[in-house]
Design brief:
The chain is of the alpha/beta class. It has eleven helices and 16 strands. α4 crosses α9 (about 265-280).
């Protein structure tokens, strides 16, 4: 082959280029350049939409959430004079609704209010007639077999409400007397167990709700009303003469109230628990507590004067969903 001109220089340049292109650094740079070109040429994969199930899917699809509430569970969940549902638990449940709305990125959620009572509240949730119930329901291991529970919203003790002239100061004083409680509650079970084990010969009356139970007490058809202490203070607040009544007796149990949720719907429970935990650890729940237990409340504007207990203070610091049994 005949080479003309500066052949030596040309041969050197070709050789140098070959060496550079075959070096690891140059190969890596070339590979990155090719990858970037391919990346620009191909459109980015779209983020997959979140797959919903259970109650969250139902709410998203229908735009409606069904809230179970009580009619006369003062000050947790009850009707005011205008037949509006109000109370400590009701306020917390509405916080949950706001959290669900944000989680599902929905502008609005229609709220359907469904009244429940102590006898049917578990079935209403288990059968899908309401999505969540927040009132005054004790979380225990027996009930956990049928439904799930949210983070605890309140801790109570079971005591007695009685007239100051009744002579009843504690549970042993109930022997041979009529005692009322609310049907389907933990208090009814505890009272019947106490009556059987201690042979107290009590006549136990199971009222349909707390309002009826207090009416039986107020009309002297029973010597005492056994129920959760906070609920007893609520009934005392609506008495014709509140000063005539007193909450007495050694607590027979401590119980944790939670919102009732469908069994094993974990995504829904996570949203509910997150909302309640935020309310408690931020101080918001304590402000709600003060509104319902330390200030005048409907229907008569009376103050329950029920200070925040040590157990409640601990709950607000470290929210959990543990039952006491």
């Amino acid at each position: 082959m005949k080479v003309t001109g500066n052949s030596n220089g040309l041969l050197f340049a070709v050789a140098l280029a070959t060496v550079l292109l075959s070096s690891p650094a140059m190969a890596e740079a070339q590979s990155k350049s090719q990858a970037q070109s391919k990346s620009k040429a191909q459109p980015k994969a779209q983020a997959q939409p979140r797959e919903l199930a259970g109650i969250l899917k139902k709410i998203k699809d229908t735009g409606v959430i069904s809230l179970g509430h009580r009619a006369a569970s003062i000050p947790f969940s009850y009707y005011d004079g205008e037949r509006q549902v109000i109370g400590y638990s009701q306020e917390l449940m509405l916080k949950v609704v706001e959290a669900i709305k944000a989680d599902l990125k929905m502008a609005t959620i229609d709220i359907k209010l469904v009244p429940v009572n102590s006898s049917n509240r578990l079935e209403m949730v288990a059968d899908g007639l309401v999505d969540i119930e927040c009132g005054s329901t004790t979380n225990n291991s027996k009930r956990q077999k049928r439904v799930s529970f949210s983070t605890t919203i309140f801790i109570i003790g079971t005591r007695l409400l009685t007239n100051r002239d009744s002579g009843v100061l504690d549970f042993p004083d109930l022997s041979g007397k009529n005692v009322v409680t609310t049907k389907g509650t933990t208090s009814e079970r505890l009272l019947r167990e106490m009556n059987d084990s201690k042979k107290m010969n009590m006549s136990i009356i199971a009222a349909k709700d707390h309002g009826e139970a207090f009416l039986i007490l107020e009309t002297r058809r029973a010597a005492a009303f056994m129920m959760d202490d906070a609920l007893l203070y609520g009934e005392l607040a609506k008495a014709k003469k509140p000063a005539d009544w007193a909450v007495v007796g050694t607590s027979q149990s401590f119980e944790a109230y939670g919102c009732i949720l469908p069994k094993d719907d974990l995504p829904f429970k996570e949203v509910v628990d997150r909302a309640l935990t935020k309310a408690m650890t931020s101080g918001e729940a304590e402000k709600i507590y003060a509104r319902w237990f330390l200030q005048p409340i409907p229907p008569k504007g009376l103050n329950l004067n029920f200070p925040l207990s040590d157990a409640m203070k601990e709950l607000y610091k470290a929210p959990n969903d543990k039952a006491f049994d």
